[in-house]
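Lecture notes, continued. The same structure-token format from the folding unit now serves as the input rather than the output. Read the line below as a description of shape only.
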């Protein structure tokens, strides 16, 4: 899943609260297969709904 500009990922751990915003999209040819980034606390970050 290539990242898209404007996507927001949030850590599901309430004590952490880390949030990531994509400021530059991956190139169209990117074929990345990762589901979501991993937070520094080790949890898989969740894509925030629009």
């Amino acid at each position: 899943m290539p990242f898209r500009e404007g996507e927001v990922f949030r850590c599901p751990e309430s004590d952490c609260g880390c949030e990531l915003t994509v400021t530059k999209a991956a190139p169209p040819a990117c074929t990345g297969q990762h589901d979501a980034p991993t937070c520094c606390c080790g949890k898989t970050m969740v894509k925030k709904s629009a």
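Point for the exam: The longest strand covers residues 8-10.
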